[in-house]
Amino acid sequence: MKVQGNLKVLRANAKQKGNFLTEYGLALLVAVIALVGLFVAYNANSGNTQANSLATDVIRLSGSIKQSYANNYGTITNAGLSTGNFFKEISGSVRDNAGVVTTNLGGGLLTVTPGTVNSANDSIQLVVTQIPDNGCRPFVTNLAKTATVIDVNGSVVKAVGAVIDPSKIVCANDNNTVTMLVQ
């Protein structure tokens, strides 16, 4: 009888060990789901932060160009701006490699050329490519006060003398191009 009693105790212990492993597995699953949620929330916030930083730097760059070139925008090139250290002023959100300027937001390019609002070379044209969707709208809306014209993926969202129309900011496929003209 004593052997039979010991077998019952062993079986009960074995069942408890199985329950312990199930509970441990469920706790790990809950922890992994929570970590994934935190990662997703961080990435969304990181995109907004990078968009705001890049917009601020693009606005600062356009102001610096306007001040230095004094409405003589016909000679603006990325190479010339690189030589003149214009991109070093905004090095927090871009990387300049001898005029090939990549952004931290999406890894696209920032290209600065003469632009046309009313006549040739009357403005600065700044084009940023490969903007991810989560940074696209914040980036564009931050540029609204400085830009004369803003185009997102070929659609004008701010025309000359108008206010920005947020309903026209259509960002898709994490590969958006924003063109901004500044007078």
Tell me the radius of gyration.
28 Å
Which sequence of SSEs, written as H and E, runs from N to C?
HHEEEEHEEE
Count of individual helical segments? 3
Query: How would the global form be characterised?
Result: elongated
What does the model show?
- With 183 residues, this protein is α+β, with helices and mostly antiparallel strands.
- The chain contains 3 helices and 7 strands; from the N terminus they run ααββββαβββ.
- β3 and β4 (123-131) form a beta hairpin.
- The mean pLDDT is 86.
Give the SSE layout.
Layout: H1 2-69, H2 78-83, E1 94-97, E2 100-103, E3 109-115, E4 123-131, H3 133-143, E5 149-152, E6 155-158, E7 176-182
Antiparallel strand pairs: 1-2, 2-3, 3-4, 4-7, 5-6, 5-7
Helix pairs in contact: 1-3
Keywords:
single chain, 183 residues, alpha+beta, seven-stranded antiparallel beta sheet, 46% helix, elongated
Summarize the structure.
The protein has 183 residues and is of the alpha+beta class. The chain is 46% helix and 21% strand.
